[in-house]
C-alpha cells in the first residue's frame, strides 16, 4: 500500500469513532426519548462524533486542509448547538439538530463505502473474497 494510502493511527481512530457513532446514533434514535438510556447513549454518541470530527483535522492530503474539513467544523458547531438546545429545554430544536447530524453521518458513510474509495474498496474486496 502506498504511504499516502496507509491507514494511519488518526485514520483508524476517525473510522472507529465514526463507525461507532453510526451504530450508536441509530440505537439512540430508536430509543424512547428522554430515558436514562437515551441520554447515556446520546452522550456517548456526542463524544464519538466530536472525536471523529476533531481527529479529521489531522487527516490531510499534501499537508493541507480541504473542503471536507468544513464538514468537521459544521459537525462540531451543530452538535454543540443541539446540546445547548437540550440544556435550555428546546427539545424540538435538539431533536432536529441531532437528527440532521446523524443523517449527515449516514450520507458520509455511504460515500465513504463507494467502490473506488479506500474503505469502499476494502469492504467490497472482502465481500468478493467471502463469496469465494
TrEMBL record:
Pfam families in UniProt: DUF2306
Keywords, ordered alphabetically: Membrane, Transmembrane, Transmembrane helix
InterPro entries: DUF2306_membrane
Transmembrane parts of this sequence: 6-31, 40-59, 65-87, 99-116
Domain of life, per lineage: Bacteria
Protein name as it appears in the record: DUF2306 domain-containing protein
